[in-house]
Every structure is written in C-alpha cells, then in structure tokens.
C-alpha cells in the first residue's frame, strides 16, 4: 500500500455472522478471546491475525478496546486501525506536532549529542558503523536532568490529557530514581559510588530536605527524599478528603508520606503535646521504637481496654513502634508508601538500600506487602485498568530498585522490566523506556544483547510516525550478535525499501541517513526498486546505475529507456548512459548485443560523417562496407536476443539505426568506386532490419546499379572483341 493512501478512511462492509445460542459451550469458549465460535477454526491456519500497513490489525477475536468481557459470537473478521501514535495525541485525540517533537525528536537528539563509540561492521563490499552510548555514573545526574527537562516541556502542553500527565509525572520520577540509585559524585578528588556513600552516611531520620541540593546528600537520604516526593501528591489527595474532626487520621496520613513537620504542628495545634513529641522522634533511634513497643505490650499484658483509646491513636502508636502491619490493619495504601513506612519506621535507619528492597520483596512473596503495580493501575485514570492481572508485572520504579539490590550481575527480569507495560498502558509505546535502557546499560548496571524486541518495537513506532531516519539510528544501536551478523543490515535495508517514499522526499532525512554511514548504494537501490514499481523507469535506471546494479540497469536501458530517448532525439543522454556502463561490461550479460550496439552505432556514424582527410581506418568503400556489415550483423543478433522483450518502438529504433548507417554507406558509394564494391554495399543494406518499403526503394537502386554494371561489362566485352578482330 502506497504511503499516500495512509490517510484514507477505512470502511468495513456490514455483515452478519450466523446465529448461535451464546449459552452453548464450545471448545473455544474458555479461551482468552471469550469467543463461542472462532472464525479462524473454519479455515485452519490459513487465517489467523495479521498486521496491515499503517497500523491495520486484521483478526477474528474481540474488537480492540471492548469493555464487554462476556462471551461473544466471532464468526466475523475484524479490520481495525490501531493508534501507534497515541502518545502524540492530546485529550481531543488529535496529533500535536509539539508532542511528536518532544516525545521522539528531542529525546533522540539528546541521545545523539551524548558520547558514542562506534564499531565497524564489514558486510562484503559495504560496511556499517554500529553505535553504542558511552557515559558514566559521574555524568548520569546531568543526563537525567536533561531528559527530565524534555518531559517537563511536555507537561506544559495545554491540551494534554490527564492520563498522559500521570504517565509523564511518573517518567520524571523514574529518571530521578535512576539518578538516585546509580549516580556517583566526586568528594575530595575521589569518586564516591552509591555504596561508599552508604558507609559514610550518618543517618538521622528526623531531618527533612525540602531545599537541599540532592547531589550533596548520601544515597539513603536521597532515596528517602525521592520516596517523599513520589508519594506527596497521594497523601495530599487523601488529606483533602478528610473532615476537620479527623485529626489523628490526618496525622497518620502525613506520617505515611513522612511529612513529619506538618504532623508535629498538627498534633501540637490540637494540644496533644505528648503525641507531638513522639511524632517528632518518628523514624529515629531504634531505642525509641522499642520503648513504645514495650509500652504497648505492657498495656496488652495488663488487660488495658483499648476501646477507651481512639483507634487512630493506637494505629499511630503501632507505627511509631515500628509495627507497620499493625498500624495498617484494614487500611490500603500504595506500594511506594508501604516501602517508605518499611524504610522509615520499621527497619534500622542506617540499613543499606539493597536490604530495604530485598526485605520488601520478601514481604511481597509472603503476601504481606502491596503489589508494586504499574503507575497506570496505581494512580489512574487509565482505561482498561480493570483487565490487569495481579503478579503480571511490576512498576518500572520497582524494577529499578531490584536492579540496584541484585547481588550478582545477571538480572533475569530485564525483558519484563523493559516492556512497555512497566510504565504505560500503551503496549506499543517504547519512546522513553528505550532511552532508559540505553543509559542504564551505558553506565554498566547490566549488559544484554537479547533486548531486540524493545529495539524493534521502538523502530516500528518511529516508522509509523514517518521518522525513518531515527528508526535507522535506533537500529544502529542494536548490539551485534555473532549468530545474527547481518541483522542490522537486513533491518535497515527493509526500512529503506518499505519507506523510501517517505525518506526520499525529505532532504533532511536523506542527509541524516547518509551521515549515519549508511552506504549510498543501499539508498539508490531502494529508490530504483520503488521507481520500477511505480513505472518511472528512467529514474529507476539512474538509481540502478548509482547503486552499481549494472545488469538490472542494462536490462531497463535496453527494454524501456533507450528507444524512447532515441525517438526523442536525446542521443547525448543515450551516450551518457551507455558509456557509464561500459567500464563494467564484463559484469553485464550480452553487453555487445545490448548497450554496446548504441555505442557502436554512434562511433560508426561519427566516423562515416567525418571528412575523408581525417579518416584512417574507413578510407575506402570496402573498409566502410566491412564496418557497416559488422554492425548490421550485430544488430540482427541483438534483435534475436532481445526480440521477446522489445516493444514496437524499440524495433523501430533498430530499423532507424540500420537505415541511417545504410544511407551513409550508400551516399559514399559514388565516383571512384567499382560496381562490384557498390553492389556489395547493397548486399549489406539488404541484411539490415528495415521496413519493406525502404527495402524496396533500395532494391530499385540496386537493380538500376546492376543494370548499369551489366552495361559496363557488355561494353568492355565489345571493346575487347573489336581489339581482337583488328
């Protein structure tokens, strides 16, 4: 399907399937498609699911995005348009140019501006320059900041949907978390890694850091600050829904976000000085937690009736004692706040982050911690969230924590971590996670050559937006594999072939692709195939010549181009095209009977048109006749070879070449030539491929010449007879 048809509206014909009672059970009723009848069963494997051009999905299942989860009758084939460019659309579902730029061009330009190392990949006579991002943990904070700036510019787009804003805010938090967990900084001329910072840290859980440069804080303090920031809006949303009489619940909510100053002020303002003092020590010394826990145990042993104490106050005391499960009985909170409670109030304040993350994972495996669901499930409002299945996947932020906490280099969850569903509900959106993978791999957090699904998904997304040059840029960053040495070359050539209508019409894309080191022969080959397909054979010929496909260029020249140029009088163009292939005639089959015919014609015609004093080889009629006879012979052989492929116009050209050469030959057979030599010229003429009327005309001249020739011979015989008698 040509690219210009991509905007055509798809109209599905109205049709009805057969009638069947949906209460009946069939072999496919219990499948994921919930179909009582599957259309694919009727034709076996000849029809399944297929992608068409420009995001067309053809299938026999439930319509995409349907809210009905019940049994359906699927005896119909659905043809639907899938929005691969969903991330570039605003709340009115219109594509915004600024969103396209901020989602794709700006991050990729940033990626391109970073340092890269190149690897030369030899592919026969051609070569590719594979690229790999190069950065380190010292430069990581600046890189993360630059990506965050791009996302923040997206958030400034006025018509952005609320769902998109949730996802973008999450992306900001992810980049902040990458900076927190994996960056290093210089202290006293030495590079301090995150692990070194943990050892140097002096924990103080009472501190808050609203106005402190995060790069100056040790790792755990930065992690604490990140958690506070990431849950702040959730705490504020829940606080805003409380009534004024729920002060204790208000304080508890503030503590779930570690907003200690606000919680202390609130407790003091209601006159509860003791609670205010306890809250001010929250997350501090383990001895304080032990004292509060001991007091609660004494009350229980002594049979204290807790019904005389407010339930929320007991929850507060349990939380301050480090018993987060006792404090959260019957209360549901998100996974990030639970992780914060674990870090702030239950575990020792000087514990390392890997221990925190592994403790959470242990509680999760035991079913005692909330599942770290992706943000589009956790916060919404995201469509289709009800279809999500528990234990399916984690949030990308949690994967980053597990990556930091792993004890060995192998991290088995990479493919799940770098799937689209880890950060967005759009399974076709890989525009940001590709950059996060590239940065994390560049700083050495992991190494993998098995994430081609991520690369190709991002390539497909770029191609659907017409960003062919960036798609090729992404392909060049795919890691080389010895078992698939031609992977990058194959993908790039397919992109050039399938989308040449796009990149060839935009000079900036063409130049960008050439600057990437893509062989120009590949570009010209793609264009040659494209112009052959649409029937523009003169352009196809030029591009076949540029890419060095001499045999294909020669065929097009002989069958489709040369005769039209000849009949149009463009002989210089024929000469240019033919001579450009002459140096490679050893690679061209039947060169002498193909384009070589045209070169021979022009050389012979030029020689015969020159003045006699400049001719050396063709100075006699016999030599001219021999040269013309040789040319006519090649012309006839060429017709025999190409006869099944030549059009009528091409045959006319052969006739005209023969006619012109024969006319020049006959014009030179005048005075000073013997009759026998002149008759030999006519013999050459009659062997030429020319129309019958022209042949008859020359035949009359030949008869006339032959008659004269006989008269001359007769006169010679009479003269010789008289001489003998005398």
From TrEMBL:
Record-linked InterPro entries: Nucleoporin_S59-like, Nup98_C
Residues in Nuclear pore complex protein NUP96 C-terminal domain copies: 249-530
Cellular compartments per GO CC: nuclear pore
Pfam family, one: Nup96
Gene3D superfamilies registered for this protein in UniProt: 1.25.40.690
Superkingdom in the source lineage: Eukaryota
The protein's name: Nuclear pore complex protein
């Amino acid at each position: 399907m040509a690219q210009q048809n991509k905007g055509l509206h798809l109209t599905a014909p109205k049709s009805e399937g057969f009638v069947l009672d949906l209460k009946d059970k069939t072999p496919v009723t219990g499948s994921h498609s919930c179909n009582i009848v599957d259309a694919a069963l009727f034709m076996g494997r000849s029809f399944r699911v297929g992608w068409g051009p420009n995001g067309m999905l053809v299938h026999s299942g439930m319509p995409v995005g349907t809210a009905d989860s019940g049994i359906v009758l699927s005896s119909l084939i659905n043809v639907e348009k899938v929005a691969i460019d969903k991330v570039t659309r605003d709340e009115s579902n219109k594509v915004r140019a600024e969103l396209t730029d901020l989602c794709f061009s700006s991050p990729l330009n940033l990626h391109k501006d970073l340092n890269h190392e190149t690897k030369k990949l030899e592919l026969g006579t051609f070569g590719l320059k594979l690229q790999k991002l190069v950065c380190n943990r010292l430069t990581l904070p600046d890189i993360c900041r630059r990506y965050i700036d791009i996302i923040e510019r997206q958030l400034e787009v006025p018509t952005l949907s609320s769902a998109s804003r949730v996802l973008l805010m999450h992306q900001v938090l992810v980049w902040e978390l990458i900076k927190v967990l994996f960056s290093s900084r210089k202290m006293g001329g030495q590079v301090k890694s995150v692990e070194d910072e943990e050892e140097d840290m002096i924990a103080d859980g009472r501190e808050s850091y609203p106005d402190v440069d995060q790069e100056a804080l040790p790792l755990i303090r930065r992690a604490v600050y990140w958690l506070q920031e990431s849950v702040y809006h959730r705490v504020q949303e829940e606080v805003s829904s409380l009534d004024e009489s729920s002060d204790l619940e208000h304080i508890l909510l503030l503590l779930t976000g570690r907003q200690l100053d606000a919680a202390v002020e609130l407790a003091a303002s209601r006159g509860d000085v003791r609670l205010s003092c306890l809250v001010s020590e929250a997350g501090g010394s383990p001895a304080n937690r032990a004292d509060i826990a001991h007091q609660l145990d004494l009350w229980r042993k002594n049979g204290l009736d807790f019904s005389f104490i407010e339930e929320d106050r007991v929850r507060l005391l349990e939380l301050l004692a480090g018993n987060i499960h006792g404090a959260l009985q019957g209360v549901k909170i998100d996974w990030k706040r639970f992780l914060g409670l674990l870090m702030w109030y239950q575990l020792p304040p000087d514990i390392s982050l890997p221990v925190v993350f592994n403790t959470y994972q242990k509680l999760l495996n035991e079913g005692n911690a909330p599942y770290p669901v992706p943000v589009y499930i956790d916060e919404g409002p995201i469509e289709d969230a009800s279809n999500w299945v528990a234990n399916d996947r984690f949030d990308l932020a949690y994967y980053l924590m597990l990556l930091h906490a792993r004890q060995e280099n192998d991290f088995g969850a990479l493919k799940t971590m770098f799937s689209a569903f880890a950060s967005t509900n759009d399974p076709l959106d890989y525009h940001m996670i590709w950059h996060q993978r590239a940065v994390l791999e560049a700083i050495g957090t992991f190494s993998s050559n098995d994430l081609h699904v991520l690369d190709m998904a991002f390539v497909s997304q770029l191609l659907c937006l017409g960003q062919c040059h960036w798609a090729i840029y992404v392909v060049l960053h795919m890691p080389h594999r010895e078992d698939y040495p031609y992977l990058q070359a194959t993908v790039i050539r397919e992109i050039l072939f399938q989308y040449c209508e796009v990149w060839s019409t935009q000079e900036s894309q063409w130049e960008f692709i050439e600057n990437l080191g893509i062989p120009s022969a590949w570009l010209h080959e793609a264009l040659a195939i494209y112009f052959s397909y649409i029937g523009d054979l003169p352009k196809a010929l030029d591009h076949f010549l540029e890419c060095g496909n001499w045999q294909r260029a020669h065929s097009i020249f002989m069958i489709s181009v040369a005769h039209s140029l000849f009949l149009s009088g463009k002989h210089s163009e024929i000469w240019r095209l033919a001579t450009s292939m002459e140096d490679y005639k050893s690679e061209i089959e039947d060169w002498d009977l193909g384009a070589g015919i045209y070169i021979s014609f022009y050389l012979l015609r030029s020689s015969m048109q020159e003045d006699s004093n400049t001719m050396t080889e063709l100075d006699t009629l016999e030599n001219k006749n021999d040269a013309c006879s040789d040319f006519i012979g090649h012309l006839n052989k060429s017709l025999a070879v190409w006869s099944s492929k030549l059009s009528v116009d091409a045959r006319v050209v052969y006739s005209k070449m023969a006619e012109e050469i024969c006319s020049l030959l006959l014009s030179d057979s005048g005075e000073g030539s013997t009759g026998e030599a002149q008759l030999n010229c006519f013999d050459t003429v009659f062997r030429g491929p020319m129309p019958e009327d022209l042949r008859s005309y020359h035949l009359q001249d030949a008869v006339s010449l032959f008659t004269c020739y006989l008269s001359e011979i007769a006169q010679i015989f009479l003269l010789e007879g008289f001489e003998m008698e005398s």
